[in-house]
Amino acid sequence: MRLEKFININEKTEEEHLNSFLSETTEYRKMMKGVRLWRAHNHKLKGIQKFYQRHDRIPKDTPKEIHDWLDDWFNKNFGFRARSDAVFASSTPGYLDYYGKYTDLIYPCNGFKFVYSNIIRDLTIWLKETGYVKSKDSRLYAEQKFKNSDNRKELEKILKQSYTNKDLPAASLSPTEVALYCPNGFYMIGGGDFFEKHYNEIIGDYK
Question: How many distinct structural domains can be found in the chain?
């Protein structure tokens, strides 16, 4: 997903960045109690920056037919289109190597939503392994298994049993993908010593 940069590091002082960050991420930091999530991307960051996500994500590794169906299912069950309107993160940086050159801390702004599964670690890979998606001539297609209505009902049942929007820190129990819906943007902390310098303020009483 391409991102629109919202704050340039040179436009505010470090103290102003910190104050904005602390006031806008209280819900997430309180919920996580010191547990951290990382996001992979291809832009080298230094210090702290804020981004807004886009809402026109084109599926890279999932056939559009299944991508749209999954969006509808997640929206119906969790209130947002987890395949198009979310950024993906993980508590395990090494798990994200495939998805970008750099891996940095992510902090959603207040008002965010999330969904994850400790059973299905990567939904795209799982769909391939279970026969809902097939590959042909370097392209991906919805397999006949998905086109069958009874099989789609079974898929819905599996997803319902596997995904949750409760207890986000528990996502750290396995290297799984976490879909974060951030309508008010999110912060990322990249290279440099910003996190270490302001550790006490960032973690605060939420350990």
Answer: 1
**Entry pTM:** 0.86
Q: What is the dihedral of CA 188, 114, 95, 109, to 10 degrees?
A: 10
Measured CA to CA, the distance from residue 132 to residue 70 in angstroms comes to 12
d(CA 19, CA 14): 9
Asked whether 108 and 25 are in contact (CB, 8 A), the reply is yes
Give the tokens for residue 194.
Answer: 């910003």
> 95, 147 in Cβ contact below 8 A?
no
> What residue type is 37 in one-letter code?
L
The number of beta carbons lying within 10 Å of the beta carbon of residue 20 is: 16
Helix/strand/coil for 142? strand
Question: pLDDT digit string (tens) for 129-170?
Answer: 898 887 765 556 567 788 889 999 999 999 999 999 999 999
Short-list 194, 185, 190, CA closest to 43: 190
Residue matched to tokens 């550790």: 199
**Diameter over CA atoms, the chain:** 57
> Where does residue 107 rank: exposed (0-12), middle (13-18), buried (19+ CB within 10 A)?
buried
Structure tokens at 168: 């986000």
Q: Which domain holds residue 190?
A: 3-203
> Per the structure block, which two tokens stand in for 105?
């801390």
Which are the contacts of 103, defined by CB distance < 8 A and separation ≥ 6? 38, 39, 40, 93, 96, 97
At 67, the amino acid letter reads H
